[in-house]
Amino acid sequence: MKVLIPSALRSYTGHGEVEAGGATLAAVLADLERRYPGIRFRMIDEQQEIRRHIRFFLNGEQLRDLAQPLPASGELIIVQALSGG
């Protein structure tokens, strides 16, 4: 599956678009971690929850659960909210 990486995480991948596989969102993130060590921790916290500032969209629909089944093909978009003061 095609995964679009936000600019804040491109230091891990070196690219704005990468490939990853897995039957669930958790499996796709594990595959990304295997290929790009350290990237998963930027999206998933110590309690195995999606971090507040991260959103995942598959073909335009937001994913909220790491156990969400995913099709073999499609486009996963990772969005990282910006904050500041």
Automatic annotation (TrEMBL):
Pfam families: ThiS. It comes from the Bacteria. PANTHER family: SULFUR CARRIER PROTEIN CYSO, SULFUR CARRIER PROTEIN SLR0821-RELATED. This is 9.5 kDa culture filtrate antigen cfp10A. It comes from Accumulibacter regalis. The lineage of its organism: Bacteria, Pseudomonadati, Pseudomonadota, Betaproteobacteria, Candidatus Accumulibacter.
